Each structure stands twice: as structure tokens, then as C-alpha cells.
Amino acid sequence: GRVVMVGDAGYCASVASGMGTTLSFVGAYVLAGEIASQQHQHQHQHHGHTQAFESYEKLLRPFVAGVQTPPLPGIPHIAAPQTRFGIWILHKVLKTVSVLQKSNVGQYILDRAFPEDEQYKLPKYDHIKCTYI
To answer: What is the pTM of this model?
Structure first.
């Protein structure tokens, strides 16, 4: 008997990360892909689930660990302020971010904060046929 939890119950991302929904979708995709891969390799018999869960853990663990770690110390306190001053700081930070988002400076900062070579690459499951609605 195995139990697999996905989403917030399974990964508990930092509140400040804004990655809860992303983790939910990525986790579900990887779990389904690994289970389907093992079933494909074992000719649709009910074997290979242990290997599927191990692969799922191995593929997803580094991504989850990165998301669970706040990008900067103090970010959780800024994201959930407890004082008037903290709320004022939060509003200033959000205003600055929204202004920067509309400029090349914002893209420059995002590119440096999240380098492409450090981004999580979704595994491809070529043997699985997907139907999009």
C-alpha cells in the first residue's frame, strides 16, 4: 500500500514562492508519466509501480527542494507582514515589482534570478498519447 500526495499536501511550498499550483501540476504530470512508463514497459500489467514511485521521487525531489527554500532570507516575513510598517513595506515592494515587470529592467532581473540552465525541465513521455480538450 502506497499513498501519494500531490499539490500542497505533498510538497508544502513556501508561501512566498508562489509555486503551489505549479508544483501540483508538475507533480501530477510526472507521477502519471512515470506510472504510464512503467506500465508501458511491463506490457500494461500491474508491475513496476515501485519503480514508478522511485522515479517520480528522483525526478521531482530537486525541484521541490528548490521551491521549498525561500529565494531570500526574510521573504516569508515580507509576504505575510504582522505590523503596519510591514504592510507598508509589502505595498512598496509590490508596487516596485509591478513597475519593473513592465520594463526591460524587470525581465533582466527575472532572467538573472531564474537562469534557464537552473529551470526544471519536464520529462517527455513520448509513448503516451495525449488528447487535449
So the answer is: 0.67
